[in-house]
Amino acid sequence: MNFWLMLLSDAFSVITIALCLILKVPQIIRIVKSGQATGLSFNGLLLELSSYTITMMYNYCNKHALLSYMEYPIIIIQEYILIGLVTHYKKMKRTAFPLLLLIYMTVSLLFAYGILPKFLLTLMLPLTTPVGATSKIMQLVEIIRRKNANSVSVLTWFLSFFTNVTRVYTIYLDSADFYLLLNFTISSALSGAVMAAAMYYQKQAAQQQRIAAGIKTH
Q: Where is the chain membrane-spanning (predicted)?
């Protein structure tokens, strides 16, 4: 394969991994600063976590190049923090969390150590596309339904869009895995849609604030 194409692929992988170090950080900061989680879908976050975990384990168990999926453990850690914050600010009950976390960690470790057969991951991987898509659709619907994106970080969704696009390129060169390519292509489109919706409603909110401020001055 062309040396320069592979070099570009490796460069994109490094950039993607570097950006994923802070992928959810703007969103985390925005929630903490605003003290609320309005416009964020909790169920969407859980679905997103499931999708990330299955994809990471699939890549790991199939011995794909580390650079092609190294961002996943980084994102997953940030996802834990984000879910915890949303749970806190939405004042949701967390009684089932320890049990769910135990099941989640146990199954992940069983796959990682090869105790559970990796063909199960192959069966589950196609589900990550509808699951991941559903998580983003739920987030999009939450923003549109509330007409409020004040707690949503546009930067986080831009980074999500960009890193998904770069992954389409790197995976195509590395393994050309159909399911992974489909997953990232759909994810790119939906991340872009959430970003656009958040920008629109934040702009609307800013305009309303300016109008309200203008009325008060008269």
A: 6-25, 72-89, 96-113, 150-172, 178-201
**Rounded distance between C-alpha atoms, residue 103 and residue 162, angstroms:** 32
Is residue 181 classed as helix, strand or coil in its secondary structure? helix
CA distance 131 to 146: 22
Distance of CA 118 to the CA centre of its chain: 23
Nearest by Cα to 70 from 3, 27, 143, 18: 18
Question: pLDDT of the chain along its 218 residues, tens only?
Answer: 578 888 888 888 888 888 888 999 999 999 999 898 888 888 899 889 988 999 899 999 988 888 778 888 989 999 989 988 988 888 776 557 677 778 888 998 999 999 999 899 999 988 888 998 999 999 999 999 989 998 899 999 999 999 999 989 988 888 888 888 988 899 999 999 999 999 999 999 888 888 877 766 55
Chain length of the chain: 218
Q: Environment class of residue 81 by beta-carbon count within 10 Å: exposed (0-12), middle (13-18) or buried (19+)?
A: middle
Dist. CA 48–CA 24, nearest whole Å: 12
What is the DSSP secondary-structure string of 36-98? --TT--HHHHHHHHHHHHHHHHHHHHTT--GGGTTHHHHHHHHHHHHHHHHHHHTT---TTHH
